[in-house]
């Protein structure tokens, strides 16, 4: 096995990941309140929480980390490695099906799936992790393990990467934007509680809506059919009716409420909320990403990291293809190809790829052997023994392949990569030190860095 094992203490064991939603659907008022609480630092739960987080953040700064943000392309349901970044044309029809002609990339010796020709011309920008494995075949438990780096079970519910980054690279690092530091486009996954023991302050803000539609209706920020003039009229009417505020002009609670109201309207009517307005982009740029919901979500993600948001997840649904897998892939793979390739090209042209990690992958892969028989009619099942993830930007080296599977993609035969290895590597590129701690409500000593079951981690030194 390549790489260096680092012994890291493992504090607590995570509990079973249940079906609790990572973030409930919010009303407009709740969404604004959460956004403003984030802007005011209140998501930390008061001054004590902010002080503890600031202490942890000071200890977290580590030299060598060039990344400032993460865009996670979560392929919800599990993409098949044979159809995407680990093709096996020699395995035959029962494994590769109609996708039997992989394409050469712009990096000699690396081939990827034939439905990804645009990404094939970007291979110098990303590394393919073909040795991903954890052996878990359930959506909830696999999602928990891949997004937290911890196995289910025990007494601690760990936060996912997005929650950790929004805490340590967002709030504790002095993030002051009106846009919350952890954004999900567009719907929360609902497979586990993303915030874990960090609580509601670390939950993502899920936009709702569809960025491919005009306008992109963002919960609590953009309302369908309500113009800016109408919003201003509503604000003016509310202020005229605010007799309590007028009667208590010096009350600190009234001042705090007024400040929150001003921040709310700054978000709705000011420049901050316009980050979601894709009409500000040229038609050429929007076409580069593709006019699909996924492609336009990738474009919004780029706009968000430009505004300083440290973590954005694009939840790309529709990959749980037990039946008629290839019919679905003929729709999904071209969308993926255009959206992700557009994102990589755009970030590179803007000089932001070196500071932005793009992380592609799902909770597991899909069975290499195709289930041709009814009722599956050419389907693929869940498969946690071997699958792919992709890393680009943030200082990770492109044009590399780490790990390998056997001739049919059924077993990892070279350089197995477990979720803690991947996540710890991302944290290191973000500049988090190995001894970084997370604030726990009961004062437990919880390292931010996940480890394997034996307390070690094998970082991806091949691409760092």
Task: Tag the structure with descriptive keywords.
32% helix; two-stranded antiparallel sheet; alpha/beta; Alkaline Phosphatase, subunit A; single chain; 18 strands; 464 residues; disordered N terminus; 13 helices
Write up this protein.
The chain is of the alpha/beta class. It has helices spanning 28-40, 47-60, 93-96, 117-120, 139-148, 161-171, 228-240, 243-247, 252-269, 283-289, 293-306, 325-349, 419-429, and strands spanning 6-7, 69-75, 103-104, 111-112, 126-132, 182-185, 205-206, 311-316, 356-361, 365-366, 382-383, 387-392, 400-402, 404-405, 412-414, 437-438, 446-447, 456-457. It starts with 5 loop residues before the first strand and ends in a 7-residue tail after the last strand. It has two domains: 6-220 and 291-463, 3-Layer(aba) Sandwich (Alkaline Phosphatase, subunit A); 223-276. The strands form six sheets. The protein has an eight-stranded mixed beta sheet, with helices on both faces. The relative contact order is 0.23. It is globular and about 80 Å long. The longest helix has 25 residues, at 325-349. Helix 11 runs parallel beside helix 12. A hairpin with a 7-residue loop joins strand 16 and strand 17. The chain is built from 13 helices and 18 strands.
CATH topology of the largest domain: Alkaline Phosphatase, subunit A
Strand ordering within the main sheet: 7-6-8-2-9-12-5-13
Q: What gyration radius follows from the Cα positions, in whole Å? A: 22 Å
Helical content band: 25-40%
- Cα distance, first to last residue? 16 Å
CATH class descriptor name of the largest domain: Alpha Beta
Number of helical regions: 13
Number of structural domains: 2
Low-pLDDT residue intervals, each spanning 5 or more residues: 1-60, 234-238
Compute the average pLDDT. Answer: 83
CATH architecture name of the largest domain: 3-Layer(aba) Sandwich
- Strand residue percentage: 5-15%
Supply the CATH superfamily name of the largest domain.
Alkaline Phosphatase, subunit A
